[in-house]
Design goal:
3-stranded mixed beta sheet; single chain; 4-stranded antiparallel beta sheet; Resuscitation-promoting factor rpfb fold; 451 residues; Ubiquitin-like (UB roll); 3 domains; extended; alpha+beta
Length: 451
């Protein structure tokens, strides 16, 4: 009976404190500025600490974790180490310290009594909210295990000088890290067993070849081809065309696979062999690394059309080009224009590309799926053509007074269409408008000297 009475009186006192019905001195003593005895966070005793001391202590703990190394044991037995903080570790010590300061000092009467009773009986353990960036972890894991994995070997195919195909290899299995299984093991360490010494051994899986010899042996038929002339181009432009063509030559696309030409021909940098040449930019011509590659994408585009491969993305140039009919070009521009296509056939396709310094050719090979009595033509039609006859006038002290200089190229503003026409036994069965293109015009500029 006496014990119950003490409990009741303690509860009344706690309620009075929390509601403010106590002298200021009593409340000040109750709401002390230090954490009560027996309060832990992340296994660290915070007893008697001020909020600043507690936050600093917890921050130091997590900084040590961030600076520690996570060990990844790869499939070949070798290890890779990663600084834990590089995986986007973040934490909120402040919220936990606020919670620690409130323990036994705030809340409802029942909660207050329970907390103070728990503290008398033993310790209270709190967690500090923290998180990692799983995308960073997955990317880091993928990069670090790559050199230790043993990926499957695909069968390969290439066209020989006599026009026949040679298939090399059968396609063999390999063993690689299973990212989908290994990543949760890492996350388990980081979330449930965080410490200064963490690590996992990767889980592996069998890696099967994407392309086998049986996939490639069926390739024998020419499905579509196209050639353009670039013999009059300057050497820099010729170099770019040849480099981009080499990147595309020999590509194999399985059924359902897509290819981005902009990605396939690699970044247009000096390291990749590209050089300065003229290209269109904002309705004008300028020197740029990789100038001329649009003739590569254009030639390939026309070969793909004739093979009737699905085109996902294609753009015309800002102004007309001279190496194909208007309405049949396919421009490439970093981050804005690309040629993307998908193998929509039941068998793989092989892309053959050749740039011999005079002519650029692409041919698409696979398994012919169209009846012999069916033919396809692509009709480019100019809907309108208007030349800009007015010349822009400029003045410059770079030229002597009384002299002038004419620059620029006169190109028409054009609206053009491309139509696919299908014939069966010579009779038109389908006429499909593929696209309508709009090209801006350009005129000449005459600059008068003022020097």
């Amino acid at each position: 009976m006496k014990k119950n009475l003490q409990c009741i009186l303690a509860g009344i006192f706690l309620a009075a404190v929390s509601l403010g019905f106590c002298p200021a001195s009593a409340r000040a003593a109750f709401y002390g500025r230090t954490i009560q005895e027996g309060v832990y966070a992340m296994g660290i005793d915070l007893s008697g600490m001020t909020s600043v001391e507690a936050i600093e202590t917890l921050d130091d703990y997590f900084q040590e974790i961030a600076d520690s190394s996570f060990t990844i044991t790869c499939m070949d037995g070798q290890t890779e180490t990663v600084r834990v903080g590089d995986w986007g570790l973040s934490w909120n010590a402040s919220s936990t310290v606020k919670q620690a300061l409130r323990l036994g000092r705030s809340g409802g009467m029942i909660d207050l009594y329970k907390e103070r009773t728990d503290l008398k009986k033993g310790n209270i353990y709190l967690d500090v909210p923290y998180s990692f960036n799983t995308d960073k972890i997955r990317d880091s894991l993928s990069r670090r295990v790559a050199s230790h994995d043993n990926p499957a070997q695909n069968a390969t195919i290439h066209m020989q000088s006599d026009g026949t195909f040679q298939v090399t290899g059968e396609g063999s299995n390999g063993e690689v890290t299973d990212l989908d299984v290994t990543l949760p093991l890492i996350m388990d360490q980081l979330t449930d067993h965080i410490s200064e010494e963490m690590g996992v051994t990767v889980v592996t899986r069998v890696d099967t070849p994407k392309i086998t010899s049986s996939d490639l042996l069926v390739i024998k038929d020419k499905l579509g081809a196209f050639t353009t002339d670039y013999g009059s181009s300057r050497e820099g432009r010729k170099t770019n065309i040849q480099i981009a063509t080499e990147f595309l030559n020999g590509k194999v696309l399985l059924p359902g696979e897509s290819l981005s030409v902009s990605e396939a021909i690699h970044p247009r940098t000096e390291e990749n062999g590209y050089t300065l040449a003229a290209q269109y930019s904002n309705g004008d011509s300028e020197q740029a690394l990789g100038g001329g590659i649009c003739q590569v994408s254009t030639t390939l585009y026309n070969a793909l059309l004739r093979a009737e491969i699905k085109i996902n993305e294609r753009h015309n140039h800002s102004m007309v080009v001279s190496y194909v009919d208007w309405g049949t070009d396919a421009a490439i521009a970093d981050n804005s224009k690309d040629l993307v296509f998908t193998n929509n056939l039941e068998n793989p396709i092989y892309i053959y590309g050749d740039a011999d310094g005079e002519f650029l050719t692409f041919r698409i090979y696979g398994v012919e799926y169209r009846p012999e009595n069916r033919t396809v033509k692509f009709v480019a039609n100019t809907e309108s053509e208007e030349y800009i006859t007015e010349r822009k006038i400029k003045y410059s002290d770079e030229y002597k007074k009384g002299t002038s200089q004419v620059t620029g190229t006169q190109r028409p503003a054009v609206v053009a269409t491309l139509t696919k026409v299908v014939y069966i036994d010579g009779e038109v069965t389908e006429s499909i408008l593929l696209h309508t293109d709009y090209y801006m015009g350009s005129g000449l500029t005459i600059t008068y000297g003022t020097g």
